[in-house]
């Protein structure tokens, strides 16, 4: 807000305490008098039209400068660049004044009596509804805004330091030659920022990812989101959090952007519980997604959240593929992905029992992702051949003590267990249960994001972001 106000002051002619030179002041005065004479000699309607056009032109100019100057900070803070804001600022500014004025009037009127506040309160509400509608329309305009990885904070500081130096050293109006120079510098800044935003993940790490499989268990509280990378491909297993009724990304987008990811090859949704999918609508707005994979019949569920999800997927024109036991998915070089559950055509009384279970295999090591699997689905999973000893298991149902996961532990014989859950995983009995087979236990609620890497040699690297940041 302060940055925008400062830009408005400077762009509208505020001189930072330096008075205009006498020749410049005389030229401006002469031009003003000439415009006044021309206006008086024209018909009334043309004068009014000319005044309106001039005011709109001035407002668009000011909006352009505000948008331009604030874009680096907004881009860095919110991962969005909004060229449509140049027009939207002009449309929303007068409505904002009406909403603020009527809202303040409603507060004072309410002190007299509720009936007195009805008119200004109604005007305030109607104005806010109109503003919301205009914002929704603006957000739907093609190429009106772009969700992007954020540029480096240091490079953003370079922009504003350069702007400050220019303000302190500038002398008089900007000549066409200087304008071209400034424009070139501006373009260079944006190009470097763009390259930096898409290249934050170290090049050596990108190179190594061609030789390994990586799974990042994101800390989303009570929920699940696993980012899987193999070579140049990126996949998600679930993406949700308990209590996320607004269908927001809840930090999953920040994790993806921090890894330089803008495209997701596929999203696996384990089952129809909202804490496993409710971030997907927002992620579809921010990232390019190729395909969605679900258990059979998941999107036919009549739960309101599932209906919203199905509508969003349809609106984005995404292909949906239903998976069942025995299916395989190609996911990067050297990575085998097999669906272990649910059996084809079988329906369960609970969504949890029908969770989509994936087994990722590379170099003799496995990562087992069981969703919220619980009986009778658990017994069906155990009928499959046991995975190799020493793999990685995501604890079923966020480490719930009621999920009968001891059988899965004994069957999988993991070296590491990752519990994607909230504060309930702090309990000692949870840690004791999953460490009972000798596995090392990581909990996203205490460890932050947990990164697992399976190297070409079959060695496993696992790190906690809060204890050993990367």
Topology:
Elements: H1 2-11, H2 22-40, H3 44-78, E1 80-81, H4 85-112, H5 118-139, E2 146-147, H6 153-169, H7 176-198, H8 203-209, E3 213-217, E4 223-230, E5 233-241, H9 252-258, E6 263-264, E7 266-268, H10 280-286, E8 288-289, E9 291-295, H11 304-315, E10 319-323, E11 328-330, E12 336-341, E13 357-362, E14 365-369, H12 377-381, E15 392-394, H13 406-412, E16 416-419, H14 428-434, E17 440-443, H15 444-447, E18 450-454, E19 460-464
Parallel strand pairs: 5-7, 6-8, 7-9, 9-10, 14-15, 15-16, 16-17
Antiparallel strand pairs: 1-2, 3-4, 3-18, 4-5, 11-12, 12-13, 13-14, 18-19
Helix pairs in contact: 1-3, 3-4, 4-5
Keywords:
single chain; 470 residues; alpha/beta; 8-stranded mixed sheet; 15 helices
Kindly summarize this structure in a few lines.
Helices cover 45% and strands 18% of the residues. It is an alpha/beta fold and 470 residues long. The mean pLDDT is 89.
Question: What can you see in these coordinates?
Answer:
With 470 residues, this protein is an alpha/beta fold. It is 45% helix and 18% strand. The chain has 15 helices and 19 strands. The strands form four sheets. Strands 10-9-7-5-4-3-18-19 form an eight-stranded mixed β-sheet, with no helix packed on it. The protein has a seven-stranded mixed β-sheet with strand order 11-12-13-14-15-16-17. Strand 4 and strand 5 form a beta hairpin. Helix 3 packs across helix 4. The radius of gyration is 29 Å and the shape is elongated.
